[in-house]
Amino acid sequence: MKRWKHRPEGSTWGDWGDDDELGRLNLITAKKVLEGIAEVKEGRSFCLSLALDYPGGNVLNPRRLPPVLSPTGDENGWRFNFLTKSINPLFMDVASDDRVLLTLQYSTQWDTLAHVGGSTTTASRPAPTWSARSPMPGATAAAT
User: Where are the domains of the chain?
Assistant: First the structure.
C-alpha cells in the first residue's frame, strides 16, 4: 500500500517501492559500510551522546525542558525504597522504579533527528492547520 499520494519535488519517496520504510537509509549498502570501515585508522570507540541535562536551561528553545527523574507509583505508594511487604507480607524486597520525562530534542537527539522533515505543501496539498478543538500540545491561543 502506498504511504503517500503526492511525491514532493526532489524527494526519493517511492524510489525503493511504495511500502519502503527506510528511505535514504537504503543508500547505506554493504559496499558503503565497507568504505566507511576503510576510513578507520585506530580502533578507538567513543560516546556520541550528551549528558541528559546538557546544555542546561532552555535558552536554545524555550519549549525544550530538561529531563525530570521521578519514581513510579500507584495506589500502594511511590516506588522509591518501597517495601513490597506492604502489598504482600510474604514479599521481602525493597523496590525502586524510576521514570524520566524527556523532551527528545533537549540534549542528544533521542528521536534520531526525525522531528524535522521536508515540506510536502503544494498547490494541490495545502499545509495542515490546527483547529481550536484539537490544539497542538503546549500551543497558545495565538498559535492555534
Answer: 1-42, 49-113
